[in-house]
Structure formats: structure tokens, C-alpha cells
Write a structure and sequence with these properties.
alpha/beta, binds pyridoxal-5'-phosphate
Length: about 280
């Protein structure tokens, strides 16, 4: 499932080709694009599965839940080369609300909008095989909703310092950046080689793992500044681990994962998708 709109013809060719390796579905919200997807799929002898994205938050891509979406489904059902498989929503704004009950209440409103549209589409005669929703922050809310058949959670694999603050999530932070201390100009400041090129500041500064009292307080292109107690023993050349504020946009800055078990590197996994958004 590609939970995004793909519209560029070169990318659509590659999307169609992917069907030779896997059962791929993609989000759509535009008739001209749906026709283009169908045309390319036919030229490659396949049928492309699509899910109609609903903009349940009124914030990003997708059709307006309700009548607009139901009519759009009718239109794309007649497009040759594609197969309508279902609907997709995404409760983004509630994924990082710290309190679980508040998060559940907010996400449920959006999931109900998705459910109402599913009903409307089915009443109009279309078969809705997949209803996709959720994220790491709402995986257990979307997962419990009777209409949802598929949960789109991704970050739970690694977690990050933003998700770590949420109550009700059973996942632990597996992803850290291995930083090297490059300077200790004054006893209260440690400088590491982790700037924006290494760890995203997207959701704020990262956290220092297992160094008591240490606080990451500033980041620039190539430097990270950490406030420490003047008695802290860290010295130039020492290694420390940092937990990023957002795992997704940090992973995309690196070529490899170093998979560690019990302090030993057990595998090196290339990050094949990194830098491939062009
Ligand atoms: C549409 C959609 N679904 C699911 C996800 C996964 O969310 P998370 O990584 O927070 O679990 C994202 C993340 O950006 C998304 O944009």
C-alpha cells in the first residue's frame, strides 16, 4: 500500500512494474490521474489496485468524506486498467496527543467519518475490500474500529523521542544516532558531530540516551550542543547515543542501519529507499 498520491508518468510506469513483484495498491484522489494510472497499467498488461484517499482532517490530500468521495468512487469504477479496492483515511493530528483518552476521542471522530463514507460507497453498490487508517499513535484506536481492515502504522518499528512521550503505546525506542564528542570547550558543554545533516530537528531536538542530566539544547548544520554537569566525564572522542525527535526523516539521511544486539553489530542493512524521492 502506497499511502500517497503518485502522479508523475515516470513514477507511474515504475508503479505499474512493481505489480510484477507484489500486490501493490496506491492512493488516488484525482480522476485524470486515475485515468493515467489505468492507461499505463493497461500498456503493461496489469490492473492497478487503488484506494481512494479521504481527507478526513481537511488538511492534506484526499477527497472530501461523504458525497464527494462516493461520487468519485463511482467515476473511477469505470476507469479501465484500475481496480477500486477501498478507502483510506489518516488521523494525523491526533497521532501525537499525549493523553490516550483525548487521542482516542479525536481519532474516533475522524474514523467515524471514514466509516460513514464506506457505508455510503457500499450503498451505492461498490465493494469496499480494504479500509486503511491509523498510525503508530492511533494503531490501537484504528485497530479496534470495526470498519478498519488495515492499519498504516510505521514508526513503531523504531519509535522516537516524540512518540516516546505518548501514553498507551507499548513500543520502545530502537533507533539511535551514534554521536562522537568533537569538543568540550567548557566543562558545562559537550559538542557532538550531529547536526541537521545527521538527525532531523523536525519535531524538536533529540534526546541524549543514558547520560544523566545531559540535555541536547542546540543543533546547527554539523554540530549538536549538549549541556552537561561540569563533573560529567565525557571527553573528546567518546561516543554517545542520541534519540531523534522523528525517526522517519532521520532514517532518510543515512545509508545503512547498524543492527546491534547485546552490544555487538549483528548486521548492516542498507537503507535502499533513502534519497529516492526525486
Ligand atoms: C498516510 C500515512 N499513513 C501512515 C503513516 C505512518 O505513520 P507513523 O509512522 O506515525 O506510524 C504516515 C506517516 O507519515 C502517513 O502519512
Amino acid at each position: 500500500m502506497i499511502t500517497n498520491e503518485v502522479v508523475e508518468p515516470g513514477k507511474l510506469e515504475r508503479l505499474a512494474g512493481l505489480n510484477n513483484y507484489a500486490d501493490v495498491n496506491v492512493a488516488v484522489d484525482n480522476l485524470a490521474v486515475a485515468k493515467k494510472i489505468g492507461e499505463i497499467a493497461r500498456s503493461q498488461g496489469i490492473k492497478q489496485g487503488v484506494l481512494v484517499e479521504l481527507d478526513v482532517r481537511n488538511k492534506r490530500c484526499g477527497r472530501i468524506p461523504g458525497k464527494d468521495a462516493a461520487e468519485f468512487v463511482k467515476e473511477i469504477e469505470n476507469v479501465r486498467g484500475i481496480e477500486f479496492r477501498g478507502l483510506m483515511g489518516y488521523e494525523g493530528p491526533f497521532l501525537d496527543v499525549p493523553d490516550f483518552e483525548t487521542r482516542r476521542a479525536g481519532a474516533s471522530i475522524l474514523l467515524d467519518k471514514l466509516a460513514d463514507t464506506v457505508e455510503m460507497v457500499e450503498r451505492a453498490g461498490a465493494q469496499v475490500e480494504i479500509v486503511s487508517a491509523g498510525s503508530t499513535g492511533t494503531y490501537n484506536i484504528a485497530g479496534e474500529h470495526s470498519i478498519v481492515t488495515e492499519v498504516e502504522a510505521g514508526s513503531y518499528v523504531f519509535m522516537d523521542s516524540t512518540y516516546r512521550k505518548l501514553k498507551g503505546l507499548p513500543f520502545h525506542c530502537a533507533l539511535t544516532i551514534l554521536a562522537t564528542v568533537i569538543s568540550r570547550p567548557i566543562p558545562e558543554r559537550v559538542v557532538v558531530d550531529v547536526g541537521w545533516k545527521t538527525m532531523t530537528p523536525e519535531f524538536g531536538l533529540g534526546e541524549v540516551k543514558d547520560v544523566e542530566g545531559a540535555k541536547f539544547y542546540h543543533q546547527s548544520e554539523e554540530h549538536g550542543l549538549i549541556a552537561v554537569d561540569s563533573r560529567n566525564h565525557l571527553k573528546v572522542g567518546d561516543k554517545i547515543e542520541l534519540i531523534p525527535s522523528h525517526c522517519c526523516t532521520t532514517v532518510n539521511l543515512h545509508d545503512n542501519f547498524y543492527a546491534i544486539r547485546k552490544g555487538k553489530v549483528e548486521a548492516i542493512w542498507p537503507i535502499a529507499g533513502r534519497g529516492k524521492s526525486q
